[in-house]
Structures are given as structure tokens and as C-alpha cells.
Amino acid sequence: MTSSSDGPSPAAHRVSGDSAGRALEMPSPLSLAGTALFLDFDGTLVEIAEHPDDVRVSPRLRGLVEELSRALDDRLAIVTGRSIAALESLLGPVEVALAGSHGGEFRPGGGQPTEPLASPLPGAVVGALQAFSERHGGLLVEPKPFSAAVHYRHHPEARDALLLQAQELAATFDLEVKHGKQVVEVTMPGSDKGSAVARFMQLPHFREARPTFLGDDVTDEDAFHVARDLGGRGILVGAPRPTAASFRLDSVTAVHAWLETGLHAAAFKGEPPR
């Protein structure tokens, strides 16, 4: 996703009233015992870039998430709006569980095949969004297997018309609309991060753990709610805003430090994974 927050999403992203009205504290140090860890990618593990393909991935990042996954007995998953193929083109063939396309793609663990959890997006939807983009100065259209995102960072005046176009396509093709940070996305039903987290938590090695989800955007709110409903917590990354998360970290840099500190503390203490 891209840049600063916009107005409310037309999708049904729930926001907790109690978290909306108070400042969020930093989370307690990461403990690996009994934890299932879920990580958004853009804005959480990497800084947001002008173009989705231009993000800079720390050389340490792949090793960090793989080490954490092993320390957690594989109870770690990256849950991203990107397709799994797009994620791995940046991060490499990472050996952790993945959910891509906002949960439309589901890979239970490294080396296992990807399972589709949604139907492919009709080609006519991408065509309509590309035509809309051309009429409004050349917005960036990002097709994905189960969704299509239109980034309007350089054309903020197109926001309202884009939302209307997305809502019309949603009504015609029975889609859902997500409004993130200067991006509007139409998705097939079944593509949401909360459903992905819930699916992971049904797996035997996740089932008895407490979920912690880290994310920065309104598209992460569904996952914050699921984590809380399952006895865990959500951690908002970035600037304060109304959210269902219980805690907040200031930046991508703070996320990396929090993850590294938890990993090193567990190694120092000889903390068992369960």
C-alpha cells in the first residue's frame, strides 16, 4: 500500500471504539512461548515506496523471519495484500507460511503448495480499472490473482471517482472493496486478512497459541479483530489512528528491532518454543 491514510473504507473494516479514543502503548517484549506471529509486509516489514516494485528489502529480513519461524515451531506467517509470487520476487523463496492477495492465496508452510481461497478476479474488472486509469491521468493499476489495486498517490483528485468506479464494479461482479493508504482495491469474496489468520489458527501447530498480528493499514483491521477474538493482540505500525489494535510500534525500523530483540532474548534465555 502507499503513503498516508485516507478517509474511511467502503469495505466493512471494523474499528474498536475503545482503541479509537486512547493512545496506544508500545507492546511488551516479544515472547516466543505460546505465540503465533503474523506479519504484514508493506509498511510493516518494508517501507512503502512510490511504486510497489521499488520497495527496499533489508538483506537481513529473510533470515530474520525464517529464524523466528523456526524458533516458533513454524507458528509464523506473512499475511500480505501482495500475491505470493510478487512477495517472493522481493523477499526470495522464503521458508515460512504465507497468505497472499489479502488471504486469497494460502500456503501453510515453506515448500507446500499454495491453496486458492477465492476465485480468480474476472478479467473484465482489470480492463475496466485500466480504462479508468487512462481517463484519469495514468493511475497505477496492480493486477493480482484475486484482486486488483489502483494506486492514486500522484492523482489524489481521482479518489472519489475511483471509489465510485470500484463500488460499481463490486456491485456488478459481486466483489468487495478495500480502501487503504492512497489505494483502492477490488477483491473476490474470501480475500481478507482476518480470514487468513483464522485459517492459520485452525492448523494443529497454531491452534493452542495466542496470535499477534502486526500491520499498518486499514486492510489489517480484520486481522486485528480476529487476533483479539482469539485471545491475542494486534500491533499497529506507524502513525496513530483509530484501530482495533491494542499496541503500537512507530515504524518499520521499530518492528525490526522488536522482532530481533525477541529472537535474541529467547536464544539467551534458552526459551522453549512452547
TrEMBL record:
E.C. number(s) listed in UniProt: 3.1.3.12
Catalytic reaction(s) noted: alpha,alpha-trehalose 6-phosphate + H2O = alpha,alpha-trehalose + phosphate
InterPro entries: HAD-like_sf (IPR036412), HAD-SF_hydro_IIB (IPR006379), HAD_sf (IPR023214), OTSB-like (IPR044651), Trehalose_PPase (IPR003337)
Cofactors demanded by this protein: Mg(2+)
Pathway(s) per entry: Glycan biosynthesis; trehalose biosynthesis
Superkingdom per UniProt: Bacteria
Entry keyword set: Hydrolase, Magnesium, Metal-binding
Location of region: Disordered: 1-22
Function description: Removes the phosphate from trehalose 6-phosphate to produce free trehalose.
Family affiliation: Belongs to the trehalose phosphatase family.
NCBIfam families listed in its UniProt record: HAD-SF-IIB, T6PP
Name of the molecule in the record: Trehalose 6-phosphate phosphatase
Source organism per UniProt: Novosphingobium panipatense
